[in-house]
Amino acid sequence: MIGKIMIGSSFGGAIRYVMQKEKAVVLHGEGIRTQDVKSAIHDFNGQRLMNPELGKAVGHLVLSWSAFDKDKLSQKIMVHRAAEYMAKMKIQNTQYLVVEHRDTNQPHIHILYNRVDNAGKSISDQFQKRMNQKVCKEMTLKHGYYIGKGKTLVNRGKLRGKDKIRYELADQIRIASRSAVDWKQLEGALSSSGIALIYKYKSGTNQIQGISFEKDGKVLKGSKVDRSMSFPAIDRTLRENFQHQLAVRCRMLDRGILPPAQEKMQTHRYGLPNYPEENLLKDLMDPVNQRETINPELNRKHKRKKSRGLHL
């Protein structure tokens, strides 16, 4: 279950959007009339007059579930979940409207509430985003809703703003890191997609502490894009890729097959700013030293045969 929080100033615009949307179904109204848009707007605005100093009196919540949760969500249950969510978010003693939208495969409801409560007091919106994450997690675990693995099931076409950039970054970084063996290769692959890497160094040293990614003028820390995209996590992936590629080339040489020519390989860390260039595979690339460098065991066998020959 995922929650989204918005606030606004026009009950008219918000109510027309949620009630007049194609395939919209009004599920519940608390303290308001729901038979038509005009009545709902009139009732919300009437209570709003009790606290005219609150400019943004419109609270707008969206609760969404995975398509896998459809069988667990009747209209009655969604109304209960809306009330449970609002209670946990400390949105109580006020008017609210619950409307189901059926324009996507994911079940979701819109909740409009009056930030002027029934006593004329303002309902605070402080720390709501932090509380939203906690409450959604609690309810997801409590009711056994589907927990997606990674970001593969998210509908990219519905994303906007920072979320859209975050998922675009995640997709591109995931693709580029599958084949890159060092940071220099990763930078080149991401650069072609308009993504720049920004390294964070420990003060006064060349030690890298973190990484951020920039796209379309927006900068996000790697760990904010996804936990698997922090500097240590990506560094570990590059190291594994490097070791795998090295092992493949070693097996080819053991079989007497010369690996295809490629650009100079560095350790997975090289290619970074302030890191010296060093070719650790110099011997590997040199046909004269290939047997000795790559397969010491073959070299020892060769020496033993030569040694036995000298004793004859």
Annotation field: number of helices: 11
Strand order in the sheet with the most strands: 1-3-5-4-2
What's the main sheet like?
A: 5 strands, antiparallel
Q: Between the first and last Cα atoms, what is the distance in angstroms?
A: 80 Å
Question: What letter string, H or E per element, gives the SSE order?
Answer: EHEHEHEEHHHEEEHHHHH
Number of strands: 8
The overall pLDDT average reads 84
| Fraction of residues in H or I helices | 40-55%
Characterise the protein shown here.
The chain is of the alpha+beta class. The protein is 42% helix and 16% strand. The chain contains eleven helices and eight strands. A five-stranded antiparallel beta sheet has the order 1-3-5-4-2, sandwiched between helices. Strands 6-7-8 form a three-stranded antiparallel beta sheet. The C terminus is likely disordered.
